[in-house]
Design a protein that fits this description.
It contains no helices and eleven strands. The protein is mainly β. Strands 2, 4, 5, 6, 9, 10 and 11 form a seven-stranded mixed β-sheet that branches. It has a four-stranded antiparallel β-sheet with strand order 1-3-8-7, with no helix packed on it. Strand 4 and strand 5 form a beta hairpin. The model has no long low-confidence stretch (mean pLDDT 95).
């Protein structure tokens, strides 16, 4: 089992920045690729970003490319999502997730079914 706890969400004005953190405990963190997803009210959960176990490969949704950066510190068992130039449409609950076995490498994993463990989420609200 892997336990994931997100933090860093909050209220920010459009154009501002936030840094989300996701602390992991349980099994060896570096065994897992990590992803960030988000879900806005009335919408389906969507993929935001993914980072391989080593941090060498990252993927981003087109809607956040160039504005968001995913990173990880395996020594601290933590994955981050730096969010810059925030827009009102970025408002959502943000979830971090750890991939299922076999997906820890450089695969593109934008589907929730490819992830085995999820955090409880952190709210991000961007005001216009």
């Amino acid at each position: 089992q892997v336990q994931l706890v997100e933090s860093g969400g909050g209220l920010v004005q459009a154009g501002g920045s936030l840094r989300l953190s996701c602390a992991a405990s349980g099994r060896t963190f570096s065994n897992y690729a990590m992803g960030w997803f988000r879900q806005a009210p009335g919408k389906e959960r969507e993929f935001v970003a993914k980072i391989s176990w080593s941090g060498s490969t990252t993927y981003y949704a087109d809607s956040v490319k160039g504005r968001f950066t995913i990173s990880r510190d395996n020594a601290k068992n933590t994955v981050y999502l730096q969010m810059n130039s925030l827009k009102p449409e970025d408002t959502a609950v943000y979830y971090c997730a750890a991939t299922r076995s076999g997906y820890s490498g450089s695969y593109y994993t934008p589907y929730g079914s490819q992830y085995a463990y999820w955090g409880q989420g952190t709210q991000v609200t961007v005001s216009s």
